[in-house]
Amino acid sequence: MENNFKSGFVAIVGRPNVGKSTLLNSFLGEKVAIITNKPQTTRNTIRGIITSETCQVIFIDTPGIHNFKNKLGENMVKLAENSAASGDLILLVTDPPSGKNLVHNMDKEIIEKMSKSGGKKFLVINKIDTIQKGEILPLVDAYQGLCNFDEIIPISAIKGENLDDLRKSIIKYLPYGPKYFPEEMVTDASDAFLISEMIREKALYLLQEEIPHGIAVEILSLKTRKDKPIIDIEANIYCEKASHKGMIIGKKGAMLKEIATRARMDIQRIYEDKINLQLWVKVKERWRDSDFFIKNLGFREEK
Question: What is the predicted pLDDT for the residue at 79?
């Protein structure tokens, strides 16, 4: 590897729903992280990889840091904090305040923990397309007073505004190093993980507010038929209450069918073969407080 090749790990951290996954997908130019308008959509760390002739950037999309109420939430926050601590560069993503306080209280806690990291620190103010330009400078001043950020860059991830500036600044601060992943690799996530996330995204989008946080998806089988260009996928959707099972299935199976149909269309983007997706709904009470169940679902354990 030539001495002028740059590479490193960039942790994307922040509160739920500030646009971390949208930013990752925008950088990659394709969808590897699911996106909904519901908080705590991202439950696991998702790595997205960009490789050029001169550098390789490994982005780590992390769960939103929040005040957790169960073991799943605790696991999510630990993943985010550990990823930030080990990153060569940390992007703290925030968005314009909805109230009078310019700095969200949770952001203050995140900044305090970030100060213990040896990596470079960026503040990324997302969703600037939702505010007036004159409102950006007071935000910058308020956050700069809390931390000596190496860079503060306002962006709109969904509209692509200032993303080139952010990308150039990231590369500028990356250390020189090896190529960690093959250059054609966009993510290190397995097919089973990506498919389970696509199914969960559709369920999150279609179901009512009280259900989504209590659902999980497990891929039971992922096989290509030998005689036909068809991939058979079987998966369980887990929920915590028997009453929720009926809502997920819907009247005469209509809701479950809609979830499967929409997920199948997304999965089809990955494979050229046809997709045969079969979903079942199972009840697993209080699974979010079960270390064994959480581990079996494949959540990363960042050390």
Answer: 54
